[in-house]
Amino acid sequence: MTDNIQILKRLYNDYTKKYVKKIILAVFFTILLAVSTSSVAYLLDPAIKQLFIEQKKNLILVIPGLIILAFVVKGASLYLAKVIMIGVSVDVTRDIQIDAFNSLLNADTKLIESKHSGKFITNLTNDIGMITNLVSTVILNFFKDSLTLIGLLSVMFYQNWKLSLFAIIMIPIASLAAKTLGKRIGKVTMQQMKHAGILNSYFMEILKNHKIAKIFQKENFEKKRALGFIENAKETSRKITVVFVRASPIMEILTGVMIALLIYISAILISKNELEVSNFFSFLAAMMLAYQPVRSLATLNIAIQQGLVGAKNVLPIIDYIPEVRDIENFKELKIDNGEITFDEINFSYVKKDSIILKSLNLKIPGKKMTALVGHSGAGKSTILNLIPRFYDPESGNIKIDNQSIYESSIYSLRKNISLVSQDTTLFDDTIFNNIAYANKDASLNEVKEAAKYSFASEFIEKLPNKYDTLIGENGIRLSGGEKQRLSIARAILKKSPIILLDEATSSLDSDTESKIQKAINFLTKGRTTIVIAHRLSTILNSDVIYVIDQGKVIDHGKHDELINTSATYKNFYQKQLKRS
Description:
By secondary structure, the chain is an alpha/beta fold. It has helices spanning 2-16, 20-53, 62-106, 109-112, 117-159, 161-168, 170-208, 210-215, 219-271, 277-298, 300-318, 380-386, 410-415, 431-435, 444-453, 457-460, 480-494, 510-524, 559-565, 567-579; strands at residues 340-347, 357-364, 369-373, 395-400, 403-404, 417-421, 498-502, 528-532, 544-549, 552-557.
């Protein structure tokens, strides 16, 4: 309970407080709504007594006119209150999504890789939707229904206090039923969010890997898997719906019992001349109109429980503090030569798990090419990932031009690094915007120049829309070589002094590889370059080659030296000769 109160306070202070003026205006219209609704019930008393019983003709237009006016005010007030709170709702949704997205964007790589992206999408959509429903809809309904109920109860007490005392006995009973349902809905909602995240993740996987499913003829297998995930999601949705629907018959039964007993008691009071017929109909109208706000308030706890579940999923993301972050008195990294040194680096992706890098020492000469070779899992890509601080090691230090990267700002560090990998990442945007992603202020001529030196202009100029061509999700409309050349063009445009190449020429035909190799030669000329390549033919001219095995450097030197001094390197090279 204490945690829930703290969450509600947090949501108010961070996301609702700034819109309190709009909420107060919405509350003002709910007051008009309550007054107009109550006046409708009240006007039935003079309508029956003075028009039907006493037949006062001078009021034959007045009272119906007042009833019409009451309904007009009621409708307009409800409309304006809802429009205002819808505005608050979309604003709150935007604010929470921005905070959650910004936190994810600044989060450590290991957090992003710890969960499937589909689950994060669920957090940013479904969970936040439940929070905004709590912040906006619940607030509106609370004031609207509470004030309306107070107004109608006032009419009921004015008409007859004995009947009113009996009627309000049913309100705590309805609230007790709603509280029980609310606890149940909270548990089921947590299950629903879990299954929704799994389902979203699965859909994203299949859409991304649909070719794999087809080529391995797994359509029927995937249909069965999808059916299982959908069934689980459906079952939790059904449970939530059932709990919601369960509130209706409970309220119907309570209302039916209440009306029957009220009619019975009213008949007794009328027979004793303690209640007039006009008072009874006005009272009955007020009580019937009170049915909706009582029902709404009774189920309000369900929406609150759902909102709390959403907040418990989203707020930890917003509150996440990255482990990889700037120190207080950081310095701006200034690169002259671009020499990189690894000093006693120890690293594992999961702490206290298997060590990936063990007391690693490396010296990467500035403005030259350094190659890393070794078996898969030896730690080569990890070394590259540590330089731009995608991860931080458990111990040791990395320096660039004798400046610790951990004492330098992350922005100034990454500004000086470009990365080209085999897993080319492009956006569902134009060719121009994909290349210019490296420099948002780049002109068309600068983008064209980068494309020229990456040999990307060869295919771009043949496209109908040239640089305005949309390339689809991750460049789906381009070949592997074309995507790689765009990636290199982007790196060329950035003009950074440090280049990281991770299998940049893998899985390409010889003609495309030759062009990309020329593009890489231009990209890396006069720059500190670290390259990982399984094809040793692409690194034979490297200034230094480090042989990595089980997270350690076991040999280093030029190609000709290593052929004679390193059995491991010689074995690599001979195997490649046999394959070719």
